[in-house]
Amino acid sequence: MYKIKTKLMVFFILLFIVLNSLSIFLFYSHKQTIKQYDHILNRFFILNNISKSTNDSYESMNLYLNSNRSSDLDDYNDHRSKLISFNEKVETRLESNQNNTVLSNYKNMVDSLVQENDLAIRNFSKGDIESYSMQQREALKLLGFIQEETLLLLNNELTDLHSFYGAMSKRNSYMNSMGIAMFLGTFLTGFLFAYLFSNSITKPIYQLTSTAREIAKGKLDGKDIRSSRKDELGFLTHTFNQMRGELDYLVRQIKDKSEQEKLLKEMELKSLQSQINPHFLFNTLNTIAKSAYLEGSDHISKLITSLSKLLRYNLSHIEKPVRLLDEINIVKEYFFIQKTRFEERVQFSINIPEECLAVQMPILTLQPLVENAFIHGIEPFEKQGKIEIEAYSEKGSVIVLIRDNGIGIDEHRMKVLMDRSLDRIPTSEGHSTGIGINNVMKRLEMYYQSDQVFSVFSEVGQGTTIKIKLSDQPVGVFHD
């Protein structure tokens, strides 16, 4: 992992090295320029000192020859020592590839001047007037030659100084340009790094913030944040993506597989499905009594058998699914009982292909719907009533239709029956089960985990049709 702290340290170290290298280079260049300038000035000073010392030594010699004072001789010796010292520095300080011969001649002339001055003083001390006078004249000639040669050397030095000044001006201009370029380059590099570095930090943070807002709104199935970084932000992004995925998985688990919710629903269903309406038993027993009085024991036996099957089916285990065939058989028993009671006032018909009878479904699905059709659609109907059950296969599913030609359902009642948001299922008036349309709808939707399995079509005065879509692959709480 490349830490953000490491990146910053590397950048600032590199910036420090570049800036210090630039400063050292500029300082060294400036020092070299000053050194060259001092060297040229020293050449001027040496030539000037030699010129002055030759004049001083010659004048002090003349004074001594004219006055014969020891103080003048001491002055001459001082100037002579200085001249010799300056003359020894000529070759080391003024020598170059272009003036070696000139400097050698110049040094020899100075040495000759010193010798002529010394001979003149020596001959003067001996009293040889002719000799020291001749050497005095020779010294004067040498002095003139030295002055001319000094002017020539100074002129050459001025020419070199002019060339040096031009080169130094160009060099200073170049150094200034390079310094400005280096400053701008360093500034732009620092600015670019600051922009890219800040953007590389703020962009992932903005993405994380935006995604966190989506999660706060409940959107857990969004796309992962893409990041190829190998620093703390990359680790944070990867961890955030993993956390959101796990959170989405946990929420789905809570929604789809909550055992507590399933148990509560099952308990509610058990409570609703196991109800028996005593009023229905009372009416059925009255019917049996009347039949026994009017028709005899065979029909009574059939009624008692149908009632027994109906009660046994209503009290069976509600956790296990049943076949459509089982639901149809119990509906037939219910039809027999109601047919005995109402005779020709109501007609029942069932039309289901054999290949549809094996499909699985929740127990007590068709009978409560037939009961509701009879009670709310047929009983208040003054004409002859009719209830039909039909089924057919469609795209891997079995469609079951329950029709009646009764009074129908008004719009308000339809909204109440189909309201899935009701926490408490409305009270039913069923004969044997006490289960209404809303209860059957909720059980089917829980059984198949879909809200597209149950629908009702009805108009006032036109009857009612209930459509159920059954599948062989249920996923709800009743599935084994």
TrEMBL record:
EC class (word): transferase
SUPFAM superfamilies named in the record: ATPase domain of HSP90 chaperone/DNA topoisomerase II/histidine kinase, HAMP domain-like
All copies of domain Histidine kinase, residue ranges: 297-474
Signal peptide: none
UniProt-recorded name of the protein: histidine kinase
Chief subcellular location: membrane
Reactions catalysed, as given in the entry: ATP + protein L-histidine = ADP + protein N-phospho-L-histidine
Membrane topology, record value: Multi-pass membrane protein
GO MF term list: ATP binding; phosphorelay sensor kinase activity
Localization, UniProt: Cell membrane
Gene name in the database record: yehU_2
